[in-house]
Amino acid sequence: MTQLSIVKWVEKLLSGCEGTANHTDDIIVHGSDELQYDKRLENVLQILKDNEYLITLKIPDRRSFEYSSFETLKIRLSNLKTLGYYNPVGRTQIIADAFPVGLGAVLVQIDRHGPRIIGFGNKSITDCEKRYCQTEKEALALVWAVEHFKIYLLGKEVELISDHKPLETIYGNRSKPCARIKRWVLRLQTYKYKVVYRSAKENIAYPISFDNENYINAIVEYSRPIAVPLVEI
User: Fold this and answer.
1) What InterPro entries does the annotation carry (predicted)?
2) How far apart are CA 212 and CA 219, in angstroms?
């Protein structure tokens, strides 16, 4: 059972419960006073019990971990050991990623001290591009990233890093992609590149493939359950 089907099932299950809403795997119960709240909560728990739906009452507090991680990230991003100046003869990588509302890329060079970030880039995608399948979005992310950083890439070899495994084949020598991707392949023929797969956990371009406003709009547009009106969000 997929996450989306579970959400829809819970929506249907709680459709008759007043003062109740669900979002992804969370169920929200509210009331005007404690008595009304307790009554509505008992009703929801009884419905869940009757339908053999398991709930988690103890939720771990991740806020302290998230806060410390965010502070560590800020320190590392401003550290000279993380950032660097462009070296014309250095080993160069572009790490790219695609999101439902945008594309992100990071230009990285590796020296004797390890990888150093040279530059960041991101852009929103058009309404037409939002209708691309995920493979097409990921393929577009690589093309856009190369052209965005083209001043650093002309005349030298570059590794294109993606967390989308099919791109290794799509941008390979024996690939026979669709017409749209074929045009993108032609646009990359100016450059010397090799597509390399890297797992999503190691993809540092993911957070910058969306901006705050568009990301929130995407959640509202694609993840909002029917049971939660837009005005409540």
Assistant:
1) DNA/RNA_pol_sf, Retrovirus_Pol_polyprotein, RT_RNaseH
2) 11
